[in-house]
Specification:
With 334 residues, the protein is an alpha/beta fold. The chain has one domain: Alpha-Beta Barrel (TIM Barrel), CATH 3.20.20. The chain is 42% helix and 15% strand. The chain is built from twelve helices and nine strands. It has an eight-stranded parallel β-barrel with strand order 1-2-3-4-5-6-7-9, surrounded by eight helices. GO terms for molecular function: oxidoreductase activity, acting on paired donors, with incorporation or reduction of molecular oxygen. InterPro entries: Bact_Lucif_Oxidored, CmoO-like, Luciferase-like_dom, Luciferase-like_sf. This is Luciferase-like monooxygenase.
Length: 334
Amino acid sequence: MDISLLKKIPYSVLDLATVLDGYIAADTFKASLEIARQSENLGYKRYWFAEHHNMAGVASSATAVLIGFIAGGTKTIRVGSGGIMLPNHSPLIVAEQFGTLASLYPNRIDLGLGRAPGTDQVTAMAIRGENFHAVHNFPKDIDRLQQLFSINNAHSNVRAIPGEGLDIPIWVLGSSTDSARLAAEKGLPYAFASHFAPAFFEQAISIYKNNFKPSIYLAEPYVMACVNVVAADTDHEAEILSSSVKKMFLGVITGKRERLKPPVENIDAHWDELEKEAVEQMLYYSFIGSRDTIKQNLTAFVSKFGVNEIMSTSHIYDHQAKLYSNQLFASVFE
């Protein structure tokens, strides 16, 4: 195994704007800005937010607004969406919003696009209304978005101002093989949600790489894998800290979604065997432990799958512990 492999890999952050138990969204946004500034200083390449709705513990529903807040409070790190759920919006509105962001923060904005609703079906209906089946338009909506960003759209009856003629990288996000085929067909970079949907990861990136068609946007395949990270001085300490994210995913599978809870000493007291198995399956691509443990496991992961970039997401209750985890994770790539 090449122990220097990670030195060649860019590393980034996915922030779900997690709301902690006992706190409010305003506290979350303040904490996110501090983490983003730290990430910039630690050499992280990107800082992305994901669009979610109707979740008590996730405050990233107004994704473009948060991107502007973080980009305005940092200087060099790329800021973007991981992702915008395109069927929730018209391509024109997305083009205008991200055109505005890219005009304010040139060469720093990324636009990751997904097709899921980012919520439950009832809320999806409230968001999409008559456009509920817009998910089926996802490939055409990406085409429309690319057209709106194109300088060639200048003579169209419908134009994105600002947005037109701007270089805003578009990514396809996914948690299944469908997204892999779409990203490959369009010659776009591919970000996989292996932090919660590990089952299709290996198959999806294989499909993407084997079917990739070079485009004006990208000459060869580019895969970013998002993984869960909890780093601490010892494996034992990291395992205790990770009980917060495990309880969060327990809430996902039981339908009891709450704000992020403080860690517990014995997570096994909080679930039965079936629940434990379900949570651990969802968290399969998680890197929990000391710096050395994470470095060893992450090197094996990158070596096996040949990913081009790693994006970490960390659900850690204590803010200082989260900052320290972020620092330790960055040091893995040195």
